[in-house]
Amino acid sequence: MSTLVLVLATGVGLGALYFLVASGLSLIYGLMHVLNFAHGVFLTLGAFIGWEAAQRMGASGWAAFVVSILVGGIVGTLFATVTELALIRPLYERHIEQVLVTVGLAFAAVALFEGIWGSDPLYISGPAWLDETTSLLGARIPNVYFVLMIAATALLASLVVFLKYTRFGMIIRAGVENRAMVTALGIDVKKSFTLVFAIGGSAAGVGGVLAAHYTGYVSAHLGQGLLIFAFIVTVIGGLGSLAGAAIASVLVAVLQQLANYYLGGTGDFIVVAALAVVLLARPRGLLGRRPA
Amino acid sequence: MNALIRSYGAAAFGVALVVLMALLPLLNISIPGVLPTPTYQPGALAMLSLAMVFSALALSYNMLLGTGGMLSFGHALYFGAGAYGLGIILANLGVPLWPGVVLALVGGLAIAFVTGAISMRVTGIPFAMVTLAFAQAGSVLVRRNSSITGGEEGLSLETDHVPDFLVGVANTRNLYWLTLALLVVVYLVALWVDRSRLGHLASAARENELRLRVLGLEPNRAKLVLFLIAAVSASLAGVGYILLQSGTVPRAVSADLTITVLVMVVLGGVGYRWGAILGGFLYTVLDQRLTVLAGSEAIESLPSVLRVPLSEPLFLLGTLFILVVMFLPGGIAGTVQSWWARRSGGRPRDELGELEDDAEEVLEPAETRRS
Q1: Least CA distance to A177: which residue of chain B?
Q2: Which residues partner with A218 through β-bridges?
Q3: Domain-located, residue A147
């Protein structure tokens, strides 16, 4: 029983991490039809710079942890905003080229990170509390999972509030629904393109710092490894659907952890099989909109 | 008549080029800065062979992206299936080389059939993501099952059943000719695909799938067959790879490799067969030369702001790739071709632009029809 609880908690923690990546991907795809391959490097850069900041403040303090999260988020936001302005915007409406540019950026950035921080993982440490465990239903669950769950829930809640109750949020929702109409009404959709990139980038940057605490290290490939699962999550959840991404994140991660534990480490494989099943039975994903 | 002369001219040029390439190991040509050694020595031949293997892979990818308009991120899976397939078969089944090659290709075909049929449930960008996921699963399988595949260490080629003339550094020349033959075969397949009814159907589906359906044609089967042909060609390139390198590493099935191939094809020019070959050569040469450059003293002595980026070949290649996509749509081949066409007064063609319409077609109909 306690093992099952632990496996489930690990799954939900990992799912929270997936959601931090997938939410941005899904919003960007929904609004702009851009598959952002560079999303993983936003995360990696956030993790690296966040760790540098934490190290300068003495890594084991709470202040350093909070600052590293803030720094990670800011770095992710800036990197994503610059990417949108410099690389995506000039290729307006040319989707294949936009994808290719993000692929090139990811390629170049990973190599650059390896040049700066080396190709071996950097092992990190945080406040001691994060590595301790809390007993829940007889299972000893690492505290970092709770932080991840709180972060992902906070992100989901603030995104929902932002999308529902603010003017920019409304424009984004309308843009996902029917961009041609929004443009025809004289609203500048381009601003919201930059905005979704900034939001996605900040979530990824925060996710990077937390991912580093989840895995215990930072490496140049941290983000790209997570990105593939985030892609799977967004396809299963339904492209462009935030709620779908949230549900699929948890489902995929829990399934992965269960298979890893009970079926001898076949988690990654089961996830791809689940993707195949979803595609065969329901190509638009769990909550994807029906193609007309 | 003019077109006839031009096509015979191109064919004659191609044959002359192949003959020249075939004669290279017998000549003593040094190209400092490009080839590490004179052409008759193994160093240069090994590099050129690798370039030809990658060119063949790039050609097979161009069938998908250029002809069929399918942006796949899982092409490395079929390359790896050829490489690992042959390695595993030779190590475990004890069959001679050539039946082993056939078995490896059949294996690649089977994997391509299953994954291709499922991936084609979706099109456009989702297709790219799904193919990536399958390739990732393949990569995980290879890394996990180290008793069969050698895991992270890679799999070295079991040479007991490989004919002696293909083994060892002294025989690099024979391997060179083998990879040249392989490249020619894949080129002819690509040429046939582009000229056949199948290729026309697939490229018509790239342009406007809806119209094809209205005309009562069924493009899905054509696209699947095209996918399978491209996958088997990639497996063939993988077979050449393991023979040439006398082993294979997990990178051969990784998403990294697919992205590398994408870089080659886009650099050379999407939709141009000679562009794909050029891209394969250019990438291999740049990769090797930039690595040498990275270790050179001129770079060592620079301040770290310049030294770190310049000593990462992949960073430079990635940047070059971004610049090509942004400022040279059509790649090298497309730019040369449109310059040539403008000079002789014809209409330039814009391959990526054509693809764009397709992406629009695939992604947008829901929106257009809803409004």
Answers
A1: B367
A2: A122
A3: yes
B4 confidence band (pLDDT: 50, 70, 90): low
Q: Rounded mean pLDDT of B169-175?
A: 83
| CB-based burial label for B92 (10 Å; 0-12, 13-18, 19+) | exposed
Cα A8 to Cα B321: distance, rounded to the nearest angstrom: 42
**ipTM score:** 0.84
Query: CATH code at A92?
Result: 1.10.3470
Chain A hits for B317, CB-CB cut-off 8 Å, are 107-108
- Identify whether A169 is part of a domain: yes
Q: Supply the mean pLDDT for chain B.
A: 83
Q: Which domain holds residue A64?
A: 2-281
**In-domain check, residue B4:** no
Top-confidence residue, B213 or B261: B261
Distances (CA, A) of B284 to B44, B53, B126, B266: 12, 10, 30, 14
| Nearest chain B Cα distance for residue A45, angstroms | 15
Residue B95 structural domain: 43-295+302-366
pLDDT (mean) for A261-285:
82
* Shortest alpha-carbon distance between residue A61 and chain B (Å): 31
> What CATH number is given to the structural domain containing B88?
1.10.3470
Cα angle value A19/A20/A22 (rounded, 5°)? 55
Q: Is residue B306 part of a domain?
A: yes
